[in-house]
Structures are given as structure tokens and as C-alpha cells.
């Protein structure tokens, strides 16, 4: 045999041997994964033995939840399983879905961290800001940022909010003249972004006039959808596999767009603070705005916050400060449009308080009780954040005696809680009297801003904005539903409508 033929034979033999080794290693890895899958599944089954659930597939879990009808399926399931039920995403991943106020009170009264398996998927987008931090770092950031929401800071924001609203309403006047329904969420989203940019980030221009910001709004919408689908896909839990998928590439592009926006906001403010006049103005303030707190903050060892930390907090508040508020407002408008008698009563209250609405102040916000009741009832029916997830850091026993071990993840379903007939009689009926000052209710039956130590830091900011927007809009327009396009609520990071929220707007003369 020639030398070249011998070499070729040896080469083929070495390739064959290598492939055999790879095959054996692959089989061993597969076997190891199968064992881990089985062991974790058995642990979950034992942990949830006190909590019955609807039938589920051993590998695919509760497939009946895998659609845009997830909210409706949870409502149906709630009828048969009091307080809570295990939701199986697949054979080795399950969460306890909770919708009982006593259960909520127990979990929110503890210091369990956010569930890493779920929230880590948000890290490429919003980093480790207040939403995702746990333990001491969370406490330090919360304490640092709390002064940004002091009433001395929030008071002057009312005028800024009103200016942004009027700009949107002027645009609506032009569109209303065309006598067709308007998809309000897109407009409201730009307006709430405009407001948060001016209030929290000292932005001078107008987001609603500058068309460039539509790309940021679209990126946030894409990330909402992509996060929702990734959480429910077993193969997309691995970062490498996800990055190679079409959804992973889309998410990467959307993250880049969102980061470009927030990096621009931070750079612009840093450049402004290079000006001595602007710097002196800031130093004379008793309290600083959100971004200025971050830029002037010092850690415990005296260092400035890193660019990564600043961007994470800006990304977090930019998203939470505009998208959740836009969702809340859109659904509030829909609720008022479909209940004209309550809408009119709100309008009369606002007219008697504000006249033509040319001036709305901080003091007015506590003088519209019926409008506030309607806002809260709409937030009950359509909570912007449908649920939050905690991972038990120690075992828990609920008031009914059932218990769970450390390590289980619990979904606090705010949407299901707000629609629970054992908590709210006739839960689908819009009834603002539920929130009358003398109306009794459980301390944890209404949680649009979560509860406990980790409740929403911007709760007062958001409620103020909701009141300003609703009041000024009702002075200018009568809201009417578009019966040909009834919105379909769907679960995302923020409650959205599958087909948009379309309303007819009738100018009030």
C-alpha cells in the first residue's frame, strides 16, 4: 500500500474514532439532562402535592395556556382551584399561580427575591436596576432614588404633564375631525414618554413632535412580545440557542435601539451639566430629579455609579415610567368610553373644579374623588402589570395550612386577583363605588402597583399623571367606543390589546 493511501486510511480512522467519542459524550450529556429533568420534575410534583391543578402533559406542561387567550384560561381555572394552582410551563418548570389576597399578603410581606429564571431574560434589555436587583444592592438603590419621588419634586411636574397632554389633545382634535376611530395607545405612549423624558430626565424638546422616538416605542413593543414568547419556549431558555434564533436576533436589535435612546439621554444630560450655569442651578436645588440623582450619586465607598448602573436605572424607569402608564391610561379611556354615565359624572366633577382646564395644579389632584374612584376601578379591571414572580428564599406556610418549600417560584397574578369573584363580587362589572372612601376591602385585594417593601417607587408619579390626563381629556372630548373593534386584553410584560384600543372622540364645545 502506498504511503499516501496509508495516511488517508489513518486519517479516516482518526475521524471515525473522534466521531465515536463525540457520540458517546453526546449520549452521556443527554442521559445526564434526562436524569436532571426527571429529578427536578419529581421534586416539583412533591412540592405541589397540596395544590391540585388542571391536567397537563408530562413534557409540554399546560399547553392550553399557550396562546393569547392565557388571561381567559387563568380566569376559568381560578373557578375550580381556590387561592392558587401550579402552572406547568413544561415538564421541569412550574410556578404556583396565586390570586388570593391572604396568599398575596404572605408573599409580599417577605423579602423573597425576584425569580431569577424569569427576570434574568430581561437583563440584556434593562440590566440590573431597581426592578431586577435583590438584597442589599436593591435596598441601596431604592434608598438613593426615593427622594426623586418626594412631593417637592412631584409638585412642579403637574404643569409639565399638563403641557404634554395638551399637545396630544391638539393632535386628537385634528384627527377627530376626520370622523373615524383613533387607535389611542400609540398616541398615549408618545405622550407618556414625552412626560417622563421632561420630568425625570430634564429633556428640553418634545418627543411628540420629533418623529425619531417612534423607533424607541416600537423597540419597547417588540421587546414586550419577545420576552413573553421566550419565557414560554423551553428551547429559548439557553442564551446561546436564543441568540442564534430569529427571535434572538430581533431582541438583540430592539435592545440596541433602546440602549441607543437611553445612552443619548444620559450623554445629553452629562453635556448639559458641563455648563457652569446649569451646574449651579442644580446645586441650588433642595432635591434632584431622577437622572441628576444618578449622575451625582456616590456608592458606600465614595465612588460614582458606574455607567452600567446608571444605564440600568434609566432603562428601567424609561420603560416603566411610560409603557405601564400608557397601558393604564388606554384601558381607563376604554372603560370610560363603554360606561358613559360614569364618564359624564367624572366630566361634571372636573368641570366644576377646573372650569376650562387652562390651569391644573397639584392641589386639584386630591379634589376629584369620583374621577379617582373610576381610575382605580379601571386599574382593577385592567391592571397594567398583570403579575410578578418571586422565588421563595425559605419555606412558606399559607393561612389555610398549605405550604411550599424553598426554591419554588410563585406568580402573584394581579389580574386574576382583581377578577377573583371571591374577592370582588361581579368582578367583570365596572363599579367605581367599590373604591368609595367608606367601602371596606382587604388590604391586598387591589395591587396595581404591587405591595410590600418592593411596591412601585413611581406610584405617586403615575397616579398624578393618570389624574391629569383623564381630567384634561374629559374636558375636551367625549369618549365613545368603536363597536367594530372591541379590544382583546392579552398578557405581556404590560397589559396590551391584541387588536389595539380604538375610540371615537367627540369634541366638546
UniProtKB/TrEMBL annotation:
Keyword Transmembrane: yes
Transmembrane segment boundaries: 12-32
Cofactor (UniProt): heme
Coiled coil: none
UniProt cross-references to InterPro entries, sorted A to Z: Cyt_P450 (IPR001128), Cyt_P450_CS (IPR017972), Cyt_P450_E_grp-I (IPR002401), Cyt_P450_sf (IPR036396), Cytochrome_P450_Monoox (IPR050196)
Binding site for heme: 456
Gene Ontology biological-process entries: arachidonate metabolic process; icosanoid biosynthetic process; kidney development; lauric acid metabolic process; linoleic acid metabolic process
Compartmental location: Endoplasmic reticulum membrane; Microsome membrane
GO molecular function: alkane 1-monooxygenase activity; arachidonate monooxygenase activity; heme binding; iron ion binding
A GO term from the CC aspect: endoplasmic reticulum membrane
Keywords of the record: Endoplasmic reticulum, Heme, Iron, Membrane, Metal-binding, Microsome, Monooxygenase, Oxidoreductase, Transmembrane, Transmembrane helix
Domain of life from the UniProt record: Eukaryota
Family in the record: Belongs to the cytochrome P450 family.
PANTHER family in UniProt: CYTOCHROME P450 4A10-RELATED, CYTOCHROME P450 FAMILY 4
Protein's UniProt name: Uncharacterized protein
Biological source species: Myodes glareolus (Bank vole)
Amino acid at each position: 500500500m502506498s504511503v499516501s493511501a496509508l495516511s488517508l486510511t489513518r486519517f479516516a480512522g482518526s475521524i471515525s474514532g473522534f466521531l465515536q467519542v463525540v457520540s458517546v459524550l453526546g449520549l452521556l450529556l443527554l442521559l445526564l439532562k434526562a436524569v436532571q429533568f426527571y429529578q427536578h420534575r419529581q421534586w416539583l410534583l412533591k412540592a405541589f402535592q397540596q395544590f391540585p391543578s388542571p391536567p397537563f402533559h408530562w413534557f409540554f406542561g399546560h399547553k392550553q395556556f399557550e396562546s393569547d387567550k392565557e388571561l381567559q384560561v387563568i380566569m376559568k381555572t381560578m373557578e375550580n382551584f381556590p387561592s392558587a394552582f401550579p402552572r406547568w410551563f413544561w415538564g421541569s418548570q412550574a410556578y404556583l399561580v396565586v390570586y388570593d389576597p391572604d396568599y398575596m399578603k404572605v408573599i409580599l410581606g417577605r423579602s423573597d427575591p425576584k425569580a431569577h429564571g424569569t427576570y434574568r431574560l430581561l437583563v440584556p434589555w434593562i440590566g440590573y436596576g431597581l426592578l431586577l436587583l435583590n438584597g442589599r444592592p436593591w435596598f441601596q438603590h431604592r434608598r438613593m432614588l426615593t427622594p426623586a419621588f418626594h412631593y417637592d419634586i412631584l409638585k412642579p411636574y403637574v404643569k409639565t404633564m399638563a403641557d404634554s397632554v395638551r399637545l396630544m389633545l391638539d393632535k386628537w382634535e385634528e384627527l377627530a375631525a376626520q370622523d373615524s376611530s383613533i387607535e389611542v395607545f400609540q398616541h398615549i405612549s408618545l405622550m407618556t414618554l414625552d412626560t417622563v423624558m421632561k420630568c425625570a430626565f430634564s429633556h428640553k424638546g418634545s418627543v411628540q413632535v420629533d418623529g425619531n422616538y417612534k423607533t424607541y416605542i416600537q423597540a419597547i413593543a417588540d421587546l414586550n412580545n419577545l420576552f413573553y414568547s421566550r419565557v414560554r419556549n423551553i428551547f429559548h431558555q439557553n442564551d446561546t440557542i436564543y441568540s442564534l434564533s430569529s427571535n434572538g436576533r430581533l431582541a438583540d436589535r430592539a435592545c440596541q435601539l433602546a440602549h441607543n435612546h437611553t445612552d443619548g439621554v444620559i450623554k445629553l444630560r452629562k453635556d448639559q451639566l458641563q455648563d457652569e450655569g446649569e451646574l449651579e442651578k442644580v446645586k441650588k436645588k433642595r432635591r434632584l430629579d431622577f437622572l441628576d440623582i444618578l449622575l451625582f450619586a456616590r456608592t458606600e465607598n465614595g465612588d460614582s455609579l458606574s455607567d452600567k448602573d446608571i444605564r440600568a436605572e434609566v432603562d428601567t424607569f424609561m420603560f416603566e415610567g411610560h409603557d405601564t402608564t400608557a397601558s393604564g391610561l388606554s384601558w381607563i379611556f376604554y372603560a370610560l368610553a363603554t360606561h358613559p354615565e360614569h364618564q359624564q359624572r367624572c366630566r361634571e366633577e372636573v368641570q366644576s373644579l377646573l372650569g376650562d382646564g387652562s390651569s391644573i395644579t397639584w392641589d386639584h389632584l386630591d379634589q376629584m374623588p369620583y374621577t379617582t374612584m373610576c381610575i382605580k376601578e379601571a386599574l382593577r379591571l385592567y391592571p397594567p402589570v398583570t403579575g410578578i414572580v418571586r422565588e421563595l428564599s425559605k419555606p412558606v406556610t399559607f393561612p389555610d395550612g398549605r405550604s411550599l418549600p424553598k426554591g419554588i417560584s410563585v406568580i402573584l397574578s394581579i389580574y386574576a386577583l382583581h377578577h377573583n369573584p371571591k374577592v370582588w363580587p361581579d368582578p367583570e362589572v365596572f363599579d367605581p363605588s367599590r373604591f368609595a372612601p367608606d367601602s371596606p376591602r382587604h388590604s391586598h385585594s387591589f395591587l396595581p402597583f404591587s405591595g410590600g417593601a418592593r411596591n412601585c417607587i413611581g406610584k405617586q408619579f403615575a397616579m398624578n399623571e393618570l389624574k391629569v390626563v383623564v381630567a384634561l381629556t374629559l374636558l375636551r372630548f367625549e369618549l365613545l367606543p368603536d363597536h367594530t373593534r372591541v379590544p382583546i386584553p392579552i398578557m405581556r410584560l404590560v397589559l396590551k390589546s391584541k387588536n389595539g384600543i380604538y375610540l371615537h372622540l367627540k369634541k366638546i364645545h
